[in-house]
Write a structure and sequence with these properties.
The chain is α/β, with parallel strands linked by helices. The chain has two domains: about 220 residues, Isopropylmalate Dehydrogenase, CATH 3.40.718.10; about 140 residues, Isopropylmalate Dehydrogenase (3-Layer(aba) Sandwich), CATH 3.40.718. It contains eleven helices and twelve strands. The strands form two sheets. Strands 2-1-3-12-11-4-5-10-8-9 form a ten-stranded mixed beta sheet, with helices on both faces. Strands 6-7 form a two-stranded antiparallel sheet. Helix 1 packs parallel to helix 11. The longest helix has 20 residues. It is globular. The two termini are about 30 Å apart. The structure holds 1,4-dihydronicotinamide adenine dinucleotide (NAI) and magnesium ion. This is D-malate dehydrogenase (decarboxylating). Its cofactor is Mn(2+); Mg(2+). Its EC number is 1.1.1.83.
Amino acid sequence: MTDTQTFSIASIPGDGIGGEVVAAGLRVLDTVAKLSDGDIAFDVTEYPWSSAYYLEHGTYIPEGGLEDLRKHDAIYFGAVGSADVPDHTSLWGLRLAITQPFDQWANIRPVTFLPGVESPLRKADDTDLDWIVVRENSEGEYAGMGGRNLSGRGPGNEVALQTSLHTEKGTERIIRFAFDLARTRAVKKVSSVTKSNAQQYGMVLWDEVFARVAADYPDVETESVLVDAMSAKFVLHPEQLSVVVASNLHADILSDLGSALAGSLGLAASANLNPEKRFPSMFEPVHGSAPDIAGLGVSNPIGAISSAALMLDDFGLHQEADEVRRAIENVTAAGILPRDLGGESNTIEMTEAIVAQLEALHAEAAVPEPSH
Ligand code: NAI
Ligand code: MG
């Protein structure tokens, strides 16, 4: 037996369905560890930071919390958002309070079409579709710059300024990241998304950086598409997409569109990466806390489990990550589906079906070649 490779994971279930989908992903990671026969171990520490925690303590992340988080190899995040706290308070208090200081500047969001899952796109029935949205995750429209003022002039007179920040460095690193990712894929193409006809400063800088970086990747096909046209293209010609790179806000919106086209928001996975590995990266489903179904035990765990697979990739455990993805495909192909995809399985039933598939795949792989 080889030495055990131990990976330390900080789990932050957060609010609403965050707890149940994170539990589902950790159950799958447990299975991966068990099937490795002692090669791999995950050491999970749970942090109880949520909106309930905020209401009790006045803060989402306690003093010293980020220093604790930093010690882990990765962060596994559920969702944050509650009716009792304004959404901008919870998002800036917990999620953005991690992604920004940890410089998790690249957010990758694969759009995956699973067998057995009905897509609202007719094209999905007979065309192989899969693409990845690469989201600039550290600046742009979510730079948090601006302010509110003049409320002293009386009701109806307040003004607000919300400024986008586009730096040449920040733009270049995300665009290079997209090109490097495209080189690892069957279709080597990067589509850049802006709104540079209307936003003549930041988005034009983006277009110029894109053209300059593209020259270093002559083997990768490129296109520049305005965000409104790109949203139409997602629906009408998704087969032309491979890697789609866009600003913080544009990519946020486009990735929800992508996951809805694939069948449900509950399917979509995401990784917030600090590619230099100066800080741990954070893995989370794209969806939010889903207060409308929280506590019912019916949430779709596939987005969270696929995010755990992206974490395995980040750990260099590519074979294990592929096995998790194959287990998910086998389960949906067999018609075992959660309610948001028209099926009847609850969160635990979906998770156990995926675990059983993982065990079956493993047993198959372990069958020795017949000897002659
Ligand atoms: P949401 O993603 O929570 O829900 C949108 C719709 O999709 C709901 O009908 C929900 O039931 C359904 N849905 C989402 N995930 C599902 C799953 N795994 N299985 C089955 N159905 C699923 O988005 P919404 O409603 O806009 O936001 C709710 C709260 O979540 C808000 O407080 C918002 O700020 C927060 N939020 C947090 C995010 C995060 O922590 N990363 C991301 C998006 C929203
Ligand atoms: Mg979003």
